[in-house]
């Protein structure tokens, strides 16, 4: 079992920045990747960014160039830095951890609201 606790988020003005962090606990030795998804009202949950144990990253096209995902493996923590925020970035952001054997664990979610 892996438990995830997110922090950060809140109300941000358009054009501003936000930082999210997520700490994993439990059987963290099985984690192969950590990342962030988001879900806006009335929409499906979508990938924002993900980073594997080797540091390889994958970003959604909509956030490329203004988003950085990073990890501190010693602290079992993943970070998300988003700049130049837009109203369409408003969503609940969820931390995810993928493990082997294959499982996905999710955080409780943190609301990000971008005001124009």
Short note summarizing the structure:
By secondary structure, the chain is mainly beta.
Question: Would you write up a description of this structure?
Answer:
By secondary structure, the protein is mostly beta strands. 0% of the residues lie in helices and 60% in strands. The protein contains no helices and 11 strands. Strands 2, 4, 5, 6, 9, 10 and 11 form a 7-stranded mixed sheet that branches. Strands 1-3-8-7 form a 4-stranded antiparallel sheet, with no helix packed on it. The protein is globular.
Helix content: under 10%
How far from one another are the termini?
A: 40 Å
Low-confidence stretches: none
Main beta-sheet strand count, sense and barrel state = 7 strands, mixed
| General form | globular
List the helices and strands in order.
EEEEEEEEEEE
**Number of helical elements:** 0
The average pLDDT is 97
Please indicate the percent range of residues in DSSP E strands (runs of 2 or more): over 45%
Structural class: mainly beta
Radius of gyration: 13 Å
Number of strand elements: 11
Descriptors:
mainly beta, 11 strands, 116 residues, seven-stranded mixed β-sheet, 0% helix
Task: Give the topology, please.
Blueprint: E1 2-8, E2 10-13, E3 18-26, E4 31-39, E5 46-52, E6 57-59, E7 67-72, E8 77-82, E9 91-99, E10 103-106, E11 110-115
Parallel strand pairs: 2-11
Antiparallel strand pairs: 1-3, 3-8, 4-5, 4-9, 5-6, 7-8, 9-10, 9-11
